[in-house]
UniProtKB/TrEMBL annotation:
Residues 1-30 are annotated as: Disordered. Residues 1-14 have a biased composition (Polar residues). This is Uncharacterized protein.
Amino acid sequence: MKQQHQPQARTQHATIRGHVTFTPGDGAPIAIPEGPVELITAPDSTTLSWTTEDETAGSAAIPKDQYNQYVKDGKIRLTKH
């Protein structure tokens, strides 16, 4: 059986600047705190990971279209290397 090539996820760093939310399941939107995040991009979504000031870790996956809109709006600012 021939295996299909799956694109690998990429890790990037960014900063949240503005109102960025994710919606867990059927729940209400939850805000992602402003500040640094690590991004792991996949073909259909982007996972954001962060640590709050009190050292609480958080992560959320958002659909690719929503992620692209946040970047376009300047609410997620990618770190340039």
